[in-house]
Amino acid sequence: MSDFVYLDNAATTFPKPTEVIDAMADFCRKRGVNPGRTGFDLALEAEETISGARRALTELFGGTDPNRLVFSLNVTDALNLLINSILDAGDHVVSTCLEHNSVLRPLYRHASRGVNVDFVPFDGDGYVDPEAIEERLRPNTKMVIMNHASNVLGTLQSVADVGTICRRRGVLFAVDAAQTAGVVDIDVERMNIDVLCFTGHKSLYGPTGTGGMYVGKTVDIEPCRAGGTGVKSALQTQPREYPWHMEFGTMNTVGIAGLLAGQHWIASRGGVTAVLDEEMTLARRLRDGMSDIEGVTLYCADMNKPHLPVLAFNVGG
């Protein structure tokens, strides 16, 4: 492959660390069976890999119970599972005008089925005012759901302030951390986040087809899905215990093995704070260089404010 500059990491980080690729190949060769379904050695070893990933991600997100870390196909899948399981006709939900379609489209669909949805606008710098979110809350507000950072503008939102408001008002607070998981310090307890949805293929450096959510212990979700779990198979309903309450069928075990390796790789670079510092240095270098090019327009490029190493731009013509 010839040398090139890859500028689409907000969609998928590339190339993946060698450690991630090697871990997936090793898992396929030595432990690539279905965990939790039987008790032979390979299945137990596969289960330990999955459990290791739960523990690593729970620690990364400041959670307290690895069993409340559930895996899905990606963040879109996790958000759809959450939204479709939580909302009913007559409910009210607050979101923002900065959301990805993984939130917008499910909310639009529920709006057509009797759910009331408020979208809070952002200011000229790309930020949502937490007080504007509080002003939209109603007695029947079921959930506030918003992204931690915009995949287009790179602006980092004050989710901790919103979480404080939601906790005080008794409203479920869900955060889409697609852009921030792995590159920004997240603490679900300190930030009062009830449900954190994440994807594995961006700044967590895992492969595509991985993601999930961390569900706080006080959150009660009745899932809109059901299926095989490998435990309590005689039950006619989905088990109440986590993680099986929110996991259905065979998981992407190979991908999760790669996701675990991605966590080890982030730790080897000094953790998320060191990663963010390095990437912001590169982003500012890119911004400064592009600002001197005639015909280039930069958007929300004030990286002295809370910001990700994401830069949106247009090239005239």
> Rg from C-alpha positions?
20 Å
Find the count of extended strands (DSSP E, 2+ residues). 9
Give the oligomeric state of the chains in this entry, treating copies of one chain as homo and distinct chains as hetero: single chain
- The unreliable regions are none
pLDDT average, as an integer?
Answer: 94
User: Main beta sheet: strand number and arrangement?
Assistant: 7 strands, mixed
* Annotation field: number of helices: 8
Form type: globular
Per CATH, the class of the domain at 14-72 and 204-218 and 232-268 reads Mainly Alpha
Could you give the order of the helices and strands?
HHEHEHEHEHEEEHHEE
Structural class computed from helices and strand pairing: alpha/beta
User: CATH architecture of the domain at 14-72 and 204-218 and 232-268, please?
Assistant: Orthogonal Bundle
* CA-CA gap between termini: 29 Å
Q: Level of helix content?
A: 25-40%
Strand content: 5-15%
CATH topology of the domain at 14-72 and 204-218 and 232-268: 434 Repressor (Amino-terminal Domain)
What is the spatial order of strands in the main beta sheet? 1-7-6-5-4-2-3
List the helices and strands and how they pair.
Blueprint (H helix, E strand, L loop, with lengths): L17 H13 L10 H20 L8 E4 L2 H12 L5 E5 L4 H11 L4 E5 L9 H7 L4 E7 L11 H11 L2 E5 L18 E5 L11 E5 L37 H16 L3 H20 L4 E4 L12 E4 L2
Helix pairs in contact: 1-7, 2-7, 3-4, 5-6
